[in-house]
Amino acid sequence: MKINNSNFKFVSLNKNKSNYANRGLGLESDINLSNEYYRINDIAYIYKKPTPIKLVNVDYKVGKIKEAYFETPSTTDYNGIYKGKYLDFEAKETNSKTSFSLSNIHSHQIKHLIDVKRHGAISFLIVRFNTLNETYLLSTDLLEQFIKNYERKSIPLSFFKEYGKIIKVKYSPRIDYLEVINNLYFGGN
């Protein structure tokens, strides 16, 4: 059965919020390519989490979803396993040249990153500054410290430069965030 997804109608449960569904597709695509490289080379098994969607109206005769809505808030974008450790992270993009707005990441996502870290996971945030073509990994520890210690609505680029780790853009894997994880958590091995 072929589904024509150009006719999806998504009904938001919160009509006051902007739709950010298509933000981050460049970064997301790079991460997906990197994850595929990691799987093919038996390095790690990390996957994009599907967003839970409730189907409301489906025309099964033509295989067409007519109406659906986001059932529950999603947690983070990616999770998986690397060197016996659970990984969980969120990926975001910004067009700002000076900061990353904390409004781009939901409080329940931050709480999730902190919770899984508390239970032994390696959790982090990947942020791409599109106009600068720079991508950073910021550990959940540093994200949590920033939120607790600063009364700001955005994380300045200078914070990423000083405390975050830049992720190199390569041919394959496209963005090798596991190289950063290796250096931070496994002593570069």
Description of the structure:
- It is a single chain.
- The protein has 5 helices and 10 strands.
- The chain has 189 residues and is of the alpha+beta class.
- The chain has a single domain (24-50, 73-185), classed as 3-Layer(aba) Sandwich (Trna Endonuclease, Chain: A, domain 1), CATH 3.40.1350.
- A 6-stranded mixed β-sheet has the order 1-4-5-7-8-10, sandwiched between helices. The chain has a two-stranded antiparallel ribbon with strand order 2-3.
- Helix 2 packs across helix 3.
- The model is unreliable at 1-24 (pLDDT under 50).
Descriptive tags:
about 190 residues, two-stranded antiparallel ribbon, 5 helices, globular
Explain briefly what this protein structure is.
This protein has 189 residues and is α+β, with helices and mostly antiparallel strands. 29% of the residues lie in helices and 29% in strands. The strands form three sheets. Strands 1-4-5-7-8-10 form a six-stranded mixed beta sheet, with helices on both faces.
